[in-house]
Each structure stands twice: as C-alpha cells, then as structure tokens.
Design goal:
Elements lengths: L1 H8 L6 H20 L2 H21 L4 H14 L2 E3 L5 E3 L1
Antiparallel strand pairs: 1-2
Protein name: Nucleotide pyrophosphohydrolase
Pfam family, one: MazG-like
InterPro entries: DCTPP (IPR025984)
Length: 90
C-alpha cells in the first residue's frame, strides 16, 4: 500500500498532509454513513485506513502492531458506556 502510494503520489513532504487528507476522507465517510450507502462506507473507510497506514509508515510504525498494543491497553481499562455505542475510560 505504502509503496503504491509513494509511486503514485510521491514522497510525503509533511506527514500532517496525510492527516489533513484523512480528515477530508472522514467527512466523506460520514456522508456515506448518514446516507447509509454501504458501498461508499466501505470505500471511504478504506481510504481513511490507507492514509493511516501511510502515516504510520512515515514514522517507522507498524499500524497493525500499534492497534494490537492499544487494544491491550483498552482491554485493561474500566469503561463507561455513553449509551450510543461509544464510551470513555475512567
């Protein structure tokens, strides 16, 4: 993925540009969710993930390992449900 993005779009001059682009893609994802357009939800979610993988790569991070590590932390925390499918830790 990252090799393809590098070949297609060129080198990342500022990693924050990937964050900015991911935020735009998140807006598109939100629109797809509001419209309940399943095909677009999948495509937009994938766009966000591609950008996040590329961002992690810029810092020499393995996003899969980072997620596994964060899930270990999350599983050890105490959580309070907000009633909408989300929550916060204590």
């Amino acid at each position: 993925m990252c090799d393809w993005a590098e070949a297609t779009f060129g080198s990342v001059s500022a990693p924050v540009s990937l964050v900015d682009r991911a935020m735009l893609e998140m807006e598109e994802l939100k629109e797809a969710v509001v419209a309940q357009d399943h095909a677009e939800i999948g495509k937009e979610a994938a766009d966000v993930l591609i950008l996040l993988y590329r961002l992690a790569d810029q810092f020499g991070l393995d996003l899969d390992q980072e997620v596994a590590g964060k899930m270990a932390i999350n599983r050890s925390r105490t959580w309070v449900q907000k009633g909408d499918g989300t929550g916060s830790h204590i």
